[in-house]
Please model this.
Amino acid sequence: MDTSQLLKGVLDLAVLAVLRKDDGYGYDVVRRLRAGGLNDVGDASVYGTLRRLYNAGMLTSYVVPSEEGPHRKYYSINETGRVRLAESRETWRSFASTLDGLLEEVAA
Amino acid sequence: MNTQALGVEHYLAGMRAALDDLPPSEVAEIMEDVSAHVAELSTELGENETLGQRLGPPEQYAQELRQAAGYPARTERLPVTTKKQLLGRPRVAAWGLAVATGVTLVAGTAALREPAILLLPGVLLVLSLALVHDRGPTQQEIMNLPETRRVQQWLTPEAGTPADRALTYLKSLQPAWWLVRAGLLGLGAVLLASRDILGFLVIAGIAVVSVFAGPRAKVDRRWLWFSLPASALAVGLLLQVIDTTADNLGYSSSRQTYQTPVMQGYENIYAYDENGKLLTNVLLYDQDGNPINAPQGRYAYACTGSDPQPMIPANRYPRPEIQYENGTCYTVAPSMTAPSSTESTPPSSSGSAPSSSVPPTSVSPSK
Model:
């Protein structure tokens, strides 16, 4: 199964999750997601997701100057984002266990 | 390195084109993220790898980003928006900044006489910055204008060329210029202090803020609305100070020429032979045979007036000078009466010859 299709629905959750500990700029978030095992995550999808979460008021951003090249825009999760992360995690857990249950039945 | 930079620019231009139906402020935010991303990626590229191979074509990148961000699907740009682009806020703001900087330079040359003139560029700057202040610190839209790009191309010559080295060197001088600029502005403020306290406060304020504005503008391009005109003002003030100083010098030197004895002190003529001997009873004529008459000062009057001597031709030199004590006319040696300036010394003999050959006290009767 193509994981990129699955990823689309949960990329919000994944991005909020990696920003929970540390602020990060776009490419940094991409790297952390890949390091976490989401190898198929597309750069553009992550940047789009960051914009969407930002426009939805779950992230704040600030610019850090860079010695060489353009400045980096860091995103950090705010309270709204944390609340959404907690909610989404619950939703995901129940969804995943439901699906696990279904899959167990099929396997049995 | 330069081809990579070119590749980055090309890629970003493609992205911008693919996003240009979105609100400009949103495009600016996206491009802020993406330009950093693409720039960082380009440093990781292999020898023959292109950005397109790594990320897919810019249109595809833009499309994926749109979907993830929840933007509406790409719509064709309407002709109306093209018209808007022609005179969009970024362009008006950029030209406003350029014009205001130019005006500040000119106004700066008059700021010490009339500080209120700085209000004009000031208003221009506030208005043009207000147009784009909400477009973020990188002002990507302005950077994307064709005219801005052309300027940028000029400012990024190929690496290793003399132009590149010169620019790199000039850039290294930038912090020094910030200090010099603050100094020049401070000087302007001080020169104004005695006449215009408000002008003093304003320019002194600009001087202080300008120290921080330089480095800030590196991070936040909106500071350019302060930093560029501040530089222009500093240069304008410098030009004015130079101009005033040169004027003063010119004025005093022209006064000096007026003081030379050509007009005022030229009342008598002393002719010497090549041995430095004073010649008396010399008659001077010009090329037309007209007698050369020095303006008549205290010399000729005295002997044609009360003294019943035969008439002395006005062009006979040296003219006798009256001795008031006994009412007799004498020809007095130049060391006593004629100025010792170079004009009166004979060309063939040394400057000191006349005074040494004719003792200062020697007085010969003119008859």
Remarks:
- Chain B has 15 helices and seven strands.
- Strands of chain B lie at 271-272, 278-279, 282-283, 316-317, 321-323, 328-332, 363-365.
